[in-house]
Amino acid sequence: MYPRISDFIKDIFGVDVPIPIQSYGLFVAFAFIVGGYIMMLELKRKTKDGLLLPQIKKVLIGEAPKPQDFFYTGLISFLVGFKLVGLMLNYTHFYDDPQTYILSLQGNVFGGLLFGAFSVYLSYRDKLKHRLETPKWEEEVIQPYQLTGSIILIGIIASIIGAKIFHNLENIDEFIKDPVEAIFSFSGLTFYGGLIVCTISLLWFGKKNGIAPLILADAGAPAVMLGYAVGRIGCQVSGDGDWGIDNLMHKPDWLSFLPDWLWGYNYPHNVLNHGNHIAGCVGKYCSALQNPVFPTPFYETLICTLFFLVLWALRKKIKTNGLLFSIYLTLNGIERFFIEKIRVNEVYNIFGHKITQAEIISTMLFLLGITGILYFNFFKKKNVTSP
Rounded to whole angstroms, how far apart are CA atoms 232 and 246? Predict the structure, then answer.
């Protein structure tokens, strides 16, 4: 396992480079970038097919600089400088525990003021450069795909908030014990919570910017599926605890061509430090699970990549708005419901039946997807997209 990028570099090249980038966070970032790119391609295609139209907004240009124009610029730049200069002056501490440093009040005030003042100066100079004697209104044409950056940003924020909310609901005891740690820590993210809050937020944003909810949902279906597959690579590489149950069974002969770790893996050097100490290991991450477990993150990456290819192949053939997203919900529900059978998770006891939060939500998504498929097929004549 490689909890940090520096662990990977050291293992492959034998060079110890102190890079405080967590593997899980890196792949989550990749997931949003890949998903955003796929969505941008779909928004461009749908615009070309006439399903989406550009928005025309009036913008006032040439105004004289105002103090309120620089408030957010100065505040954000101050925070960046405060943390950046602080970590440069105490890099060892930052490298050892970057998450704690980022969420703490540690930093450098002088660095923050310097960054903030310089940023405000550049912004002020730019305003003066474009100032007109008489400000005027101009029309600005915004293509749907140009909103991809905003979509990614909203998706990141909404996903983290939703993931945190659902994780704390699933682990209410941990939340009650230490609510501050539960809310602000980087660990503890539930995919379905992120998916639900992210979907609601993006549909609202799309509607506000002239993108019909069903069209946006269809454009996002392949993107979310592939993004999830990429994100799960981070879980596998870092060993973040999203692994399966103990697998002490003998690997079947018909799977003999596969490496043993695909059947059962003990996640050495996992980021959670779960398990037994690895003999002779020195460093922060020196534990391995006592028993091998199913490497479920890798299974999900394979399955969701396959499902992405299915959605990608169907996207041009389907002419009914909402149908592709319904298929996504169905596939997503199937994948997560069955992976839960071999995955470690918190279990609820409902009427004597043990069931996980993900099993409940995946079942609901599956039923919603099936309902959508039947509905949109039945009413497809009223909901058909233009060729």
Answer: 19
For 8, 61, 124, 138, 380, the CA distances from 130, given in Å and listed in that order, are 48, 8, 10, 14, 51
At which residue do the structure tokens 């069209």 appear?
A: 215
The count of other CB atoms within 10 Å of the CB of residue 166 is 23
Those residues whose C-beta lies under 8 Å from the C-beta of residue 376, and which sit 6 or more positions away, are 320, 321, 322, 323, 326, 383
Cross-strand pairs, 355 = 348
Are 319 and 384 in contact, with CB atoms under 8 Å apart? yes
pLDDT digits over 58-97, tens only?
A: 888 888 888 887 888 899 999 999 999 998 888 887 887 7
Cβ 235 vs Cβ 296: under 8 Å? no
Sign of the dihedral defined by the CA atoms of residues 219, 221, 226, 232, in that order? positive
Question: What are φ and ψ of residue 122, in 5° steps?
Answer: -65, -40
**Cα(239)–Cα(236) distance, rounded to whole angstroms?**
5
Neighbours of 376 (CB within 10 A): 22
Answer whether 229's CB lies under 8 Å from 278's CB. no
Pairing of strands 136-142, 287-288: unpaired
Strands (E) across the chain are located at 55-61, 136-142, 276-277, 287-288, 347-350, 353-356
Cα distance between residue 382 and residue 375, in whole Å: 11
d(CA 175, CA 181): 8
SS3 118: helix
Which sequence spans correspond to the domains of the chain? Answer: 5-54+143-382, 61-140
The structure's pTM equals 0.83
Q: What is the pLDDT of residues 151-182, one digit of tens each?
A: 888 888 888 788 777 767 766 666 677 665 55
Tokens 């480079």 sit on residue: 17
